[in-house]
Amino acid sequence: MVAPEVKDSRSRRIGLFGGTFDPPHIGHLVTAVTVRHLLNLDVVLFVVAGSPWQKEGTRSITPAADRLAMVQAAVAG
Predict the structure, then answer these.
(1) Can the peptide bond before residue 23 be classed as cis, meaning omega within 30 degrees of 0?
(2) CA nearest neighbour of 18 among 32, 5, 39
(3) How far apart are CA 40 and CA 15, in angstroms?
């Protein structure tokens, strides 16, 4: 999770963006930024699926910890 500190979190508008993010790509970032602006959100949090059930058996999935690290690197700039 990457979020700026805000004194009163009760007034924050937070968006949640869940997905496998295997790998995270520019489309994910563009979607998050676009939705943030359209809905006037303070922050969009990426929620990396630990065990994406809908993708089981379809292909090899990168371990969740690695996908989380990739998302953190992508949103860091």
Answers:
(1) yes
(2) 32
(3) 10
- Residue-by-residue DSSP string for 12-39: --EEEEEE--SS--HHHHHHHHHHHHHT
For the chain, first and last CA: distance in Å? 14
- pTM value is 0.79
Instruction: Please write the tens of the pLDDT for every residue from 34-75.
Output: 999 999 999 999 999 988 777 777 788 999 999 999 999 999
User: Which tokens go with 31?
Assistant: 């979607």
Question: Are 20 and 55 spatial neighbours (Cβ–Cβ below 8 Å)?
Answer: yes
CB count, 10 Å around CB of 19?
A: 15
